[in-house]
Amino acid sequence: MPELPEVTVIAEDVRSLAQGMEVTRAAIFRDDVSNAGVEGFGERLVGKTLRGTGRRGKIITLDFGDVVGVIHLVISGRVLRLPGWREPDKIHTAVVEFGGGEEPLVLAFTRLWLGYFDLYEPDAVDEHPLLKRLGPDPFSDAFTPEYLRGVFKRKASIKGLLLDQSVVSGLGNIYVDEVLFEAKVHPTRKANTLTSVEIRAIYSATRDILGRAIELRGTTFDSYHDAFGETGKFQYQLKVFTHAGESCPVCGTEIQKLRVAGRGTHVCPVCQPL
Ligand SMILES: [Zn+2]
């Protein structure tokens, strides 16, 4: 599933391709792709100009002035640039055509039957079920070691808390494993046992790793590609995720795979002692 870096890259790509262009056609495959429904989706988007794009946690937002697109790409969802208009189908579940450039630009938002392309009034975006409970963004001013100290007073595992979007928004399984390895904290540690030094290390590793992953345009294992169809490059920088059975790049110990918070979890038992 695209996490913060991949969603950042896609939102930025859509902005660079379509900002300032006007929607000339828009359609979805079936009603459950958008809260606007098949009829309302085109009616509400056609004639609107894309003013900008953004990201909230793992959600892409498209600013059309008095309408905001709220897009959740799940599992293998992508944004693809198509050579021309095509009617939506079960792969290309939402298709939007922009005019006003030298030639029409057609973007398909794929496999949204588990995600969505909802349309909201700007004032109501914060009421979206997935947005209203989002914790601070790792790059916002609200994300500080002091904030983490407060939310880490619970007994839950540190991995479970970092995956919880109401604690920190945007992290998923890949980046949490990498952050905890860099911070030298075992994923099963109870958050309320962490020292100030460890909390600061988690804070720094989160910003550092997400920042580098954005620079390398995300992590591709199978389906993730940017809106230009290119893969990310951060998979070559991963130190533990997908490296179970291989040697730890720091100490040479074999990397283990465990199950923590219901997710496959990669850990070096020496660098991340319990
Ligand atoms: Zn190690």
Provide a descriptive summary of the structure in words.
With 274 residues, the protein is an alpha+beta fold. The protein folds into 2 domains: 4-127, N-terminal domain of MutM-like DNA repair proteins (Alpha-Beta Barrel), CATH 3.20.190; 145-267, Orthogonal Bundle (Helicase, Ruva Protein, domain 3), CATH 1.10.8. It is 24% helix and 19% strand. The strands form 3 sheets. It has a 4-stranded antiparallel beta sheet with strand order 1-6-7-5. Strand 2 (52-56) and strand 3 (59-63) form a beta hairpin. Helix 5 (173-182) packs across helix 6. The longest helix is centred in the last third of the chain and has 20 residues, at 196-215. It starts with a helix and ends in a 7-residue tail after the last strand. 43% of the residues are buried. The protein binds zinc ion.
Strand content: 15-25%
Are any ligands bound, and if so which? zinc ion
Largest sheet: 4 strands, antiparallel
User: What is the second-level CATH architecture of the largest domain?
Assistant: Alpha-Beta Barrel
The computed structural class is alpha+beta
How many H/I helices?
6
Q: What strand line-up does the widest sheet have?
A: 1-6-7-5
Number of domains: 2
